Amino acid sequence: MSERLSSLDLAGLSESVDLECKAAQGRDGRGELPEDFWKSYSAMANTDGGVILLGVQEKPRGRFRALGLAEVERVRKALWDNLHNRKQISANLLSEQDVEPIAVDDKTVLRIRVPRAPRQVRPVHLGSNPFGGTYLRRYEGDYAADDEAVRRLMAERVEDSRDERVLKGFDFGDLDMESVAAYRNRFAAVKPGHVWTDLPLPEFLERIGAWGKNREEGLSALRLAGLLMFGRAEVIRDALPHYMVDYQERPEARAEKRWIDRLVPDGSWSGNVYDFFRKVYQKLTADLKVPFQLHAGQRIEDTPVHEALREALVNTLIHADFSGRVSVLVVKRPDMFGFRNPGRMRIPPELAIHGGNSDCRNRRLQTMFQLVGYGDHAGSGLPKIYRNWAGQHWRRPVLYEMPEPEQTLMELRMSSLVPERAVAELTAQLGSRVAALPETARLALITAQVEGSVSHDRLKQITTDHPADLTKLLGQLVRDGLLIPDGAGRGMVYFLPWQRQTVGAAFDAADFGNRGLGAKPPELDAKPPELDAKPPELDAKPPELVTYHDWSAIPAQLQEELLALAAPVARRRKASPDVLRATIQALCTRRFLGLRVLAHVLQRDLDDLRKRTLTPMVQEGALLPAFASTRDPRQAYIAPMTENESK
């Protein structure tokens, strides 16, 4: 055993990786591979990977106690035996280096590093049937994947390119010919004299990959890529019922839904991917300042910022899972550009940022964009975005995924790494303490000031410090009262003491609420849902309502009121579910309360309260969540208003 850790080290580790601890003591107390190990293995493999520690107890959440394994080799042998048993688990992702004994508080513990499974292996499932045997990792733990999620994983596994499919019954009459003509004109301009330029339309579309043959069934028709690129929105939805593309220009640097310009498939234009790209790119770059430069006597209208925005927009479209229930969304604000596509990345974000790795979800779309000069070579688009943004001395782009619903987001902020205004605001609040802080600590506070919050992952992106040092630094800032933590493990985020914790990062997750299952596409309603349907917290939230995540931030008078309301539950070790639910609704009437506040006043365990009571109440409509994703570390709850209260 070359590595020795302490319980404090595990607390830090839980912020940098997905960590699952299992006592694994067995009936005789000597150590045994627990049955629920395989659920965690499947869930981590199908999500972001993680670390499982056998012989460590985590109770309550965030507090670790090493129990050790008396017969660690017996447990390790049972693990390897079952990894090669396809009746137990569908795939072995582990090597010898991934399974090793370590010392935690002088007790022998077995550490298993579970990698994120490549898409060609997912879903990793228990037993022989992926339906019912596939698990996903969520904020609360391991959850069985529903059939739709399993089918999506299986499609990702077998379809190298999701837009390759030839669509029976779809033909030239389903295309918007103005879009096709615009593409052909652009093709002729980019590739003058190319042999495809003067081909008849059917042959041209076949050459670029929009039209194809299914040789097994003996039919020729539009490919899905051709329908997406040139089709009419109403026809695209015949093949992809949840298809939606959305552009919003917002007037202020705030994560709210007010907009001054909007582009959605509303019948006034084709609604296809190519026209969306053309129109949105013009809007994104309309007011960019272009320095006067000449090349061969011609003025250069392109800049590194133009190039970065073009790459980001193309990437969003060619990597989108158009079968997903989330829309493609592009947001322009005075301080940033935001891009969202449905579906998670096919390779881990850190590999994509590094470059040289590519696994495009819609390769035919990618080729069609490249043929007219848009989009870079495979694996070089993201590095170019990061390089061009760094050339402006702006904050490093943020690329991240959300698992529920599955989506990938990129934020391009137009602010310097250390903006003078942010430093001035921090100095006004904290005085000379700011200048006395180490450089990385100052950067953490500035990031929280500029972006609304800071996290361990975000600091890893913008500093070169070791992850363990970042964990210690954040903990010290909390102890010094300079940051307020919220969440647990990898979901932990930190706010400045004076920040409203319901206001998230600039491209806020609240903007991406999950559309209800079975909901018809938004543009078929009188208004698209992003125009009409508000996130749940806005349905019942007057502007004066506030959110409390931290007990110390609640005024003393309100603390007394909350304690009095919670007394019927807090004074009893066991309270009936009906009494508990009624008390929670009373506590959350006309205010949002975070999980830690509720657990404090009710004297209940955080995880138990969330899993057994709060989540079912949300599902039943007895509580409204502040954010659509249950994983959001800023989650808070409010009781729905009655008709009399809402008047």
UniProtKB/TrEMBL annotation:
Domain Schlafen AlbA-2 span(s) in chain numbering: 15-141
InterPro entries: RecG_C_sf (IPR038475), Schlafen_AlbA_2_dom (IPR007421), Schlafen_AlbA_2_dom_sf (IPR038461)
Protein name according to UniProt: AAA family ATPase
Organism listed in the record: Aromatoleum anaerobium
Lineage start: Bacteria, Pseudomonadati, Pseudomonadota, Betaproteobacteria, Rhodocyclales
